[in-house]
Amino acid sequence: VPPPPAPQSAESRPRSLVSIDDLSNDEILELFRHAEEFRADIRAWTSVCRGSIMATLFFEPSTRTRLSFESAMQRLGGGVLTAAEAQATSKAKGETLADTVRVVGGGYADLLVVRHAEDGAARVAARYARVPIVNGGDGAHEHPTQTLCDLYTLWQEKGRLEGLDVALCGDLRFGRTVHSLAYALARFGANVVTLPHAGFEMPASVLDRLERDCGVRAIEARVPGLEQIAEPASVRYLTGSRPHQLALFSRPTPIVIERLDAVYMTRSQQERHDPGVAGVAAYPRLTTEILRAPALQAASVLHPLPRVDEIAYEVDNDPRALYFRQAELGVPMRMALLAFLLGRITLRSAPPARFAADPARSWPEVGLRCANPRCITNGDGRTHLPTEWFVREVEPPRLVCAFCGHSIATPLVGHARTRRVQAFDAPEARRTKPENRVYFESLAQARAAGFEAPESGPPAG
Ligand code: NCD
Question: Cα(177) to centroid of ligand 1, in Å?
Answer without folding.
Answer: 7
